[in-house]
Amino acid sequence: MPEGPSLVILKELVHHFEGKEIISVEGNSPADIERLEGRTILSFQTWGKHFLICVDGFTVKIHLLMFGTYRINDRKESEARMSLIFKSGEINFYTCSIKILEGDINSHYDWREDVMSESWNPTRANESLNAIPDTQICDALLDQNIFSGVGNIIKNEVLYRCKVHPESLIGKIPKKQISSIIKEARKYSFDFLRWKNNNELKENWLAYSQKVCCRCDLSFIKKDTGKKKRKSHFCSNCQKLYQ
Question: Residues 50, 53, 55, 61: what is their CA dihedral angle, to the nearest 10 degrees?
């Protein structure tokens, strides 16, 4: 599942279509995507893992799910979920969820929850965490209403860098560590963006998909954690468990 930084990259790749008219629309999406035909793209935006195509009066929300892909000025052999054709090129989306959001996009999203937004509010994130003291931090980091855009890679890397065990209870983690996790979630998201743009993301993974802790030279534990049952990669020696 693409995480927030990957969708920011997509937004950058299609930026040149802003202000362009959609000549035709194709695809097998059950959503009323034909409404886009003849419309002009006002802007492309992202909120966490949502890619947003904004036109006058409504917005098309795209979620790439676990296996969604896209092609710009290129097509796969399989039928697209949605294809937007312009005079100067096309954008094709595959294996994704598409929904129509009516009205002003700002009425649908709180940009303070998006870790990559200029409006990101760490104080709000801290308040949200304080309200769920019995929740494991691995689940909280994947909560899109607290850390919109954070996915499993970012979760693992943030907790490793902050030396916190993924099964730690939020209410037991020291406030200083909570602040570090919030700060690192944003910082690592922008590091992720830079590294991925430079084709060096995997080279900078310290925990995700790694076998040995670079601090302790001990084997990583890999297990499904939290209520979400997402895979965690962690060192049981240097990542402290707070319970």
Answer: -40
